[in-house]
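Incident log, entry 3
Record: Ribose-phosphate pyrophosphokinase N-terminal domain-containing protein (331 residues)
Problem: checksum mismatch between cached and fresh output.
Input:
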Amino acid sequence: MNVAKSGYRVFSANSSAACTELAKRITEESNPYAGGRFCPGVKDVNTAVMELLVMAYALKTSCARNIIGVIPYFPYSKQCKMRKRGSIVCKLLASMLAKAGLTHIITMDLHQKEIQGFFTFPVDNLRASPFLLQYIQEEIPDYRNAIIVAKSPSAAKRAQSYAERLRLGLAVLHGEAQCAESDMADGRNSPPSVKSTTVHPGLELPLLMAKEKPPITVVGDVGGRIAILVDDIVDDVEDFVAAAEILKERGAYKIYVMATHGLLSAEAPRLIEESAIDEVVVTNTIPHEIQKLQCPKIKTVDVSMILAEAIRRIHNGESMAYLFRNITVDD
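Fresh output:
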């Protein structure tokens, strides 16, 4: 990397005043030559994305040597796969960022690691797991009596990684909360009324049975244990609340939820406060101060240190491998 001797500059989007604190922490850690505000995410994500694109393009047309986007929570990361005939919005956003002039991205815990393949420039996908593991060890009394719980089979690899490093047991929740009959009677699952189409007589497609998940069951013994649910995103918390109820019924006496990104949208704070969950621990990749005022159960872990170190290493042309030591692919 050709490093400019004059140092680097930190620019920030202006979408939300909540970005100021993380910006201050990062600039204090990295001690850049000039500092500004840093925006990890705001309520109006489209405004933040557009502002980022405009800023990147302005820097590109001003002949900046490198333009590094620090995006702790990558927006639209859940829309990274094609569902039916829908579009892959995450791929579109990656193309827009490249076109605007970004040359490098620093992010944290992408929803799917394969998202890195959408980009034509380097992407450093940092991990929050060391900070969350440290929180478990230092802030959860008697954590040795805990068991790591995967909210679904798809989250089992992440949960297994946590369990192995903490030397704890593993449990997996399978199935989903059953809907009431009144929720199913609105006709949303009815087939659309279309004209009958003629099928070619030689074409006979096999009929496939519709997928139906059973009620939630727990694979593993959580009786008399502290249950720690781990995931990457906490957004709509209905699934976590339902999981906490099942774990409580199975004998878990304390329930924690650990995740990197705390979107905590809609009624999430109220639902958490009224649930069997004892604590929801998330990082400061997304501002959530308002949610914390609404729900004292929400706790925050600061990850500004690793973001600042990533910026410094990229600027100085140093290896990023140090930031991934003892990090598994499944985190």
